[in-house]
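Anyone up for a design puzzle?
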């Protein structure tokens, strides 16, 4: 503090030093990984039908043109999404004595990944994923089938059939969950309600439906999934043993 009173007064009335203007934080650059993260965020919250380039760009706080510097189109985005899911799949070392269990495990992992993101399995239908992660899993599945003694042609078609079933299964389960969450979803029937409706059918026209109503509606969790995969695997194995 200055000793001279006039200097002290002048100091009190002096303009304060200008505060340093904080630098604006730099925006995180747009990358293919960030685009994929944002797209999965949209699907997890709103379903695959809500996924658009514009919607993803809004999540990232940018415009669609920023995304096109990293992806070609919506199909290219789908390829990135499928690759991200496939990257989470853990492949076992093929074992001839355990190949059936290994196949069920790998496809069970894929099913669970798809179910995290409602409707995403639709992106894999009618397409041939070419991303290295997708090819890694396809190679691993083929190796397991071949280790089980399945002939190459049979193994190739079996892998296609199994993958198609898993995609369709995951899509159906996702659609059911979405419909149950919609307003006015009272029309979605429980197994008990379905059995009651089957029991009310005319016996002369629907004898088997009435008699086996419980069997037709049975199964919890992924019981039917495991059944279908095991049936496909069993038929594949039996075919090559003829």
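Challenge accepted. My sequence:
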């Amino acid at each position: 503090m200055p000793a001279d009173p006039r200097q002290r007064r002048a100091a009190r009335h002096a303009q304060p030093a200008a505060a340093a203007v904080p630098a604006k934080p730099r925006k995180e650059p747009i990358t293919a990984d960030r685009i994929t993260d944002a797209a999965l965020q949209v699907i997890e919250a709103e379903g695959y039908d809500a996924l658009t380039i514009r919607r993803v760009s809004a999540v990232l706080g940018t415009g669609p043109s920023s995304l096109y510097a990293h992806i070609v189109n919506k199909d290219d985005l789908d390829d990135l999404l499928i690759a991200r899911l496939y990257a989470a799949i853990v492949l076992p070392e093929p074992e001839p004595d355990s190949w059936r269990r290994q196949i069920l495990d790998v496809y069970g992992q894929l099913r669970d990944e798809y179910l995290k993101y409602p409707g995403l399995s639709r992106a894999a239908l009618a397409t041939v994923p070419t991303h290295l992660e997708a090819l890694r899993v396809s190679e691993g599945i083929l190796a397991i089938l071949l280790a089980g003694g399945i002939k190459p042609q049979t193994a190739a078609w079996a892998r296609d059939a199994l993958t198609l079933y898993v995609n369709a299964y995951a899509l159906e389960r996702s659609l059911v969950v979405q419909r149950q969450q919609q307003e006015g979803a009272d029309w979605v029937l429980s197994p008990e309600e379905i059995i009651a409706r089957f029991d009310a059918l005319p016996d002369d026209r629907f004898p088997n439906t009435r008699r086996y109503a419980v069997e037709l509606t049975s199964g919890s969790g992924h019981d039917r999934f495991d059944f279908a995969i095991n049936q496909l695997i069993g038929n594949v194995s039996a075919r090559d043993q003829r």
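A detail worth pointing out: The mean pLDDT is 87.
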